[in-house]
């Protein structure tokens, strides 16, 4: 009965948004699984689905929770118990509770296959850097789609809906994580919606890719950009492009987007979750410089956390705290701080809004300088 319920709901939504058409999906990724963001009503919804016998029919993963898996972030008993109920309900439905915002690290998403993902940075990443197809599905719809096995056939599940509409020329670079995020944010603010075709975008490594995707989707409704020379099938997208406007982003534009430094309580890396190279870079720097005056927090995926092994405990001796399964955006632990320095434009956007905590955007190297200031 529960799968039939999910199918019925998804079909009704499809009637409203895609003339009743649906597409079968290979994987799903569910957001809205932090007790901080969904609260008691969200927990009850998940528990109701699980009690009805609902089970996902495709490989499904989950977004970060309010409680980290390593016990680094302290939360009160209400949050801890609420998160435990969410985890229990998700597992009962067959959802893999990796609690990661970077499922593309371990989920194979082939070109031009359909997926029901609900974490905007992850959607933008697979759309842009793999040409795997997912729209920005709300968390409940992604879960219902995972149970039903299909989602509404919205424009991003069609080649026509992915036709580039705006030409973006980037005259800045190579871009590190912060600058890549600034370009994504500027594109988002100036364009708002549509499909950008980006020329001249030079991203220095995996961290920059993640920050570009996260910022673009945070500061706009867009979850897909064609990056010339990078996006699979970019030549085909250029051939079908219908450019209605053109914008330029210069080094000066990027510099104007960044604020002056303030003194933080803590430095934070890992929004989206830090890749292994980024974590190892931070650890190498603190070993050279010595113990910083201010703590450094790094959130990463369970996979990277496992790879680090004994380095996690060693890092604590350098006032560096590595954790997984949660982040400072969705954990109430963040409210213990006054000001956070970070190289993530996504964190810059969400942390003040969700927690009332100040955020200082800084290049990775400058963030470390602030930890020692």
From TrEMBL:
Kindly state which reaction or reactions the protein catalyses.
(R)-5-phosphomevalonate = (2E)-3-methyl-5-phosphooxypent-2-enoate + H2O
Cite the entry's keywords alphabetically. Answer: Iron, Lyase
Q: Where is the Phosphomevalonate dehydratase large subunit-like domain?
A: 6-368
- For this protein, the Enzyme Commission number is 4.2.1.182
Record GO terms (molecular function): lyase activity
Output the InterPro entries linked to this UniProt entry.
Answer: PMDh-L-like_dom
Pfam families xref list: AcnX (PF04412)
* SUBUNIT field: Heterodimer composed of a large subunit (PMDh-L) and a small subunit (PMDh-S).
Function comment: Component of a hydro-lyase that catalyzes the dehydration of mevalonate 5-phosphate (MVA5P) to form trans-anhydromevalonate 5-phosphate (tAHMP). Involved in the archaeal mevalonate (MVA) pathway, which provides fundamental precursors for isoprenoid biosynthesis, such as isopentenyl diphosphate (IPP) and dimethylallyl diphosphate (DMAPP).
- What is the similarity comment for this entry? Belongs to the AcnX type II large subunit family.
Protein name stated in the entry: Phosphomevalonate dehydratase large subunit
């Amino acid at each position: 009965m529960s799968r039939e319920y999910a199918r019925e709901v998804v079909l009704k939504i499809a009637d409203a948004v895609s003339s009743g058409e649906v597409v079968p999906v290979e994987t799903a990724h569910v957001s809205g699984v932090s007790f901080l963001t969904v609260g008691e009503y969200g927990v009850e919804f998940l528990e109701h689905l699980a009690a009805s016998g609902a089970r996902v029919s495709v490989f499904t993963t989950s977004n970060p929770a309010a409680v980290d898996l390593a016990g680094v972030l302290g939360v009160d008993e209400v949050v801890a118990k609420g998160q435990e109920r969410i985890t229990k309900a998700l597992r009962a439905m067959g959802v893999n509770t990796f609690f990661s915002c970077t499922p593309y690290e371990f989920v194979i998403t082939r070109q031009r296959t359909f997926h029901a993902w609900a974490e905007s940075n992850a959607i933008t990443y697979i759309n842009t850097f793999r040409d795997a197809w997912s729209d920005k599905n709300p968390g409940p719809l992604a879960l219902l789609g995972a149970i039903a096995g299909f989602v509404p056939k919205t424009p991003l599940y069609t080649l026509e809906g992915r036709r580039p509409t705006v030409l973006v020329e980037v005259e800045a670079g190579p871009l590190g994580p912060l600058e890549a995020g600034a370009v994504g944010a500027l594109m988002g603010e100036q364009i708002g919606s549509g499909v950008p075709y980006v020329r001249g975008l030079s991203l220095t490594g995996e961290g920059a890719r993640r920050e570009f995707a996260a910022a673009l989707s945070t500061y706009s409704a867009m979850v897909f950009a064609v990056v010339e020379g990078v996006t699979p099938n970019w030549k085909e997208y250029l051939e079908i492009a219908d450019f209605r406007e053109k914008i330029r982003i210069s080094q000066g534009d990027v510099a104007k987007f960044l604020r002056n430094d303030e003194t933080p309580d803590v430095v934070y890396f890992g929004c989206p979750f830090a890749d292994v190279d980024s974590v190892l870079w931070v650890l190498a720097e603190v070993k050279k410089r010595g113990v910083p005056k201010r703590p450094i927090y790094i959130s990463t995926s369970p996979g990277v956390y496992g790879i680090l092994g004994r380095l996690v405990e060693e890092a604590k001796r350098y006032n560096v705290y590595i954790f997984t399964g949660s982040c400072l955006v969705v954990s109430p632990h963040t409210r213990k701080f006054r000001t956070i320095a970070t190289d993530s434009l996504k964190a810059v956007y969400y942390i003040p809004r969700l927690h009332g905590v100040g955020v200082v955007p800084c290049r990775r190297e400058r963030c470390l300088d602030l930890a020692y200031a």
